[in-house]
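Last lecture ended with a question: if I hand you only a sequence, what can you say about the shape of the protein? Today we answer it with a concrete record. The protein is Rhamnogalacturonan acetylesterase. Below, first the input exactly as provided, then the predicted structure, then a couple of comments.
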Amino acid sequence: MTATRRRVVAAIAGLPLALAAAPAALANTTGDNRRMRTLYIAGDSTAAQKYADAAPETGWGMALPFFLHRDIAVDNHAVNGRSSKSFIDEGRLAPILDAIRPGDFLLIQFGHNDEKTADPTRYTEPWTTYQEHLRQYVDGARARGARPVLATSVERRKFDSAGNAVPTHGEYPAAMRALAEEEGVALLDIQALSIALWQKLGVEETKKYFNWTDTEQDNTHFNPPGAIAVARLVAEQLVAQSVLATRDVRRLDDEIPESWITWPEA
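The predicted structure:
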């Protein structure tokens, strides 16, 4: 399968069935000669594609295509349990850099698993090894004419006894913010935006956004409403930080049906 064909397939897979009837639907019909660009995601379980055995758990990367124009394909490489270090060490960055082209984007979100101090295969220190690993993503994308984009880790659901949303990522968001400023990289501050959203929603309402089921109370991973809400924040910030133009996004103010989220067989 050619690289172009893979991008078309990935774009179709990220759309609800009603919008993915045929590859022709992805053809540019605007007359402005824009080519299909690809937004690659390198990240952890909060962004990753989930499969039927994990439903209703949903990564926000599964919902992002609903908010992007169909000449921007999403190629989601995020994987459960990975840190900025282990993603590279397992050889997962290399295929992205092999495929990425000038004009494409590399969206980088790590931090949840970089915090695992007891696991040397994943742990990074915020102000040294974390930043050093993030630079490898940034430099790799830039060397290939693509645009790197850093995204601070989406917040977990945690509240104190007074009902205040509590940050859980320590120094990692600050370290990423500093790196973005130092390197001149666009930053999507999803940590700050998500904790503000959880505060607005409150203790009980946020349960409807996380993977709370009859058998599990998961305050890290999302269900469809949560994934859609975070993907909306990402899309809005891609425009706010001038990574994408207004014409590149859609449905930012629309209700997205939960039924658009599907979990393929592994």
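Comments.
1. Confidence is low (pLDDT under 50) at residues 1-33.
2. The domain at 37-253 is CATH 3.40.50.1110 (Rossmann fold).
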